[in-house]
Amino acid sequence: MKYPLIRNNFIRDDLDAVIELLRTDDPRLTNGPKVQEFEEAWSRWLGVEYSVFVNSGSSANLLSMATLKLKHPEGGQVIVPPLTWVSDIASVLQNGFEPVFVDIDLKTLGMETEAILKAITPATRAVFLSHIQGFNALSDKLLNELERHDILLVEDVCESHGATHNGQKVGSFGWTSNFSFYYAHHMSTIEGGMICTNDEQTYLNLRMLRSHGMVREIGDCEEQRKWLSQYPELNPQFIFAFPAYNVRNTEIGAVLGLSQLQRLDANNELRTRNLLHFLGRIDPKKFRTDFKIEGSSNYAFNLIQMEADDELAKRLMKAMDRNEIEYRRGSAGGGNQLRQPYMRGFVYGSEPSEDFPVTDHIHYYGYYIGNFPDLELTDIDFICNVLNNA
User: Fold this and answer.
1) Domains plus CATH for the chain?
2) Which of 133, 146, 163, 239 is least enclosed by beta carbons within 10 angstroms?
3) What pTM was computed for the model?
4) Is the distance from CB of 157 to CB of 177 less than 8 angstroms?
């Protein structure tokens, strides 16, 4: 593709950093000191106390829900968006919670605040909020009401590194927050993810859940001593607190993350420049341009038709294919998750619900196009000309 979703996400400096690691005598490549260094650097960048490096953003989602299950073994409801990545919904289901879906706001592509608040019941355990395609989905009212109701906020920030709410980075508001370092995102460790929290007990639980549930993973602390004293007959190196997972990442991934983190903010500034240029040049009669862009950090250009026009959709896709403009239909995760096979019969019966018209509009008439730092403004002009004339 002449205009791919991502280009040059790894530069020579990133690869040289990995080569330097490999050239050391007897290098440790599995989870080790570089992982800890990356976790600490990421926590400082985000503005949180603790971060845990895992092998994907999906694993971060899984551990968030597994940790929630430790707090609520009885289960309950988790409010989720129908426009998100599959692992958000799958992690809720896999941990025995009931997903409760609410529709989205077209200006942010995140769940609409009033719809979230109307969906709260005595069984609500958390709101699993996705910041879609770089937009901030938070509102002051939502944060205040969740605190008043004592409901936990889990932030999916896999697509929105560096986005802010009131000047504070999203991902630093929730009880936990999840990031993805997949190749096509803002920064990459090839595959990888991070889960973040300000709660110490949650952090210790996450470290154990990441590594088979092993108590030794949390290090010498009061929590470890509690487990050791409770099970003196067990080998202290092999006490498994939870039936957990192995979702660790590696020293190589951490070295890549440390290298890429150094230019994340600068790259995000370029992406914001690109987004403003794109929105200023696409036809507002055909496409939505009224996104809430304050605080956004978009690695993609969102293209949403103003009207449900099937013929325009066909012309658009044909024009993008012909001009080698890579795109994804349905925006994040391919559109409405409730229309996917894994959901049929799980929540809403054999046929998908028609109760989410805004998400359905994105499903059929929404797209995204790559927005990466070395995309030239003349490239954006060409792309917009193709779209406007489709």
Assistant:
1) 12-261 (3.40.640.10), 264-388 (3.90.1150.10)
2) 239
3) 0.96
4) yes
